[in-house]
Specification:
With 193 residues, this protein is α/β, with parallel strands linked by helices. The chain folds into two domains: 91 residues, Copper binding periplasmic protein CusF (OB fold (Dihydrolipoamide Acetyltransferase, E2P), Beta Barrel), CATH 2.40.50; 64 residues, Oxidized Rhodanese, domain 1 (3-Layer(aba) Sandwich). The chain contains three helices and nine strands; from the N terminus they run H-E-E-E-E-E-E-H-E-H-E-E. The protein has a six-stranded mixed sheet with strand order 3-2-1-5-6-4, with no helix packed on it. It starts with a helix and ends in a 5-residue tail after the last strand. 14% of the residues are buried.
């Protein structure tokens, strides 16, 4: 009986130590802090106290924002939270907009010190295909059309005949590209972000 009790005590003690170790790692160590699309080579690197991903929801009344990094995070904000690259109320941000949140942790909750909204990308006008030109390309089937959005977005709607190669996994799908390096490709996404 004494050995069973000692074994039970040892098991409970080990479980307690494991839970204490997990708790000591803090909230930010339990889920991803950067979305896959944000962590591509040459892109961003999240540091402790940062979240990089896509906006899910904002509640001005509750002063909370949710960001998807591959896991859903809820972060509080207030009048002291700085907002970069956005001059409207936060609840006017479009869902899925790319954002980075710098935060501090207090009493097990996250508080935003900075919400950085990804500004629109400047695209060289010579590389932009106008609607009339795209219609001609589509009608003539004279180029491979690639939708680089995540599969979920592609499945919601896409240009008929296009193929889906999410930009974050582009290197895994090189075999889908034309062998002829001079063959035209139209590469599109959800718009300048």
């Amino acid at each position: 009986m004494g050995k069973k009790r000692n074994g039970l005590f040892l098991g409970v003690f080990i479980l307690f130590l494991a839970l204490a170790l997990v708790a000591s790692q803090g909230i930010s160590q339990q889920k991803p802090i950067i979305a896959k699309g944000c962590s591509l080579p040459g892109c961003h690197t999240a540091k402790a106290g940062e979240l990089w991903g896509n906006l899910k929801t904002v509640s001005g009344k509750a002063e909370m924002i949710q960001i998807d990094t591959g896991a859903l995070w809820t972060v509080k904000f207030d009048e002291n939270t700085k907002v970069k690259n956005w001059n409207q109320p936060l609840n006017k941000l479009p869902k899925e907009k790319e954002i980075a949140i710098t935060y501090v942790e207090k009493n097990g909750e996250l508080y935003a010190t900075l919400i950085n909204v990804k500004p629109p990308v400047a695209v060289d006008p010579s590389k932009v295909v106008k609607v009339a030109e795209m219609k001609r390309i589509y009608d003539e089937k004279s180029a491979l059309i690639i939708d680089c959005r995540p599969a979920g977005r592609y499945n919601e709607g896409h240009i008929p005949g296009s193929i889906n190669i999410w930009f974050a996994e582009f290197d895994k799908h090189i075999d889908k590209l034309p062998k002829d390096k001079n063959a035209p490709i139209v590469y599109y996404c959800q718009g300048p972000t």
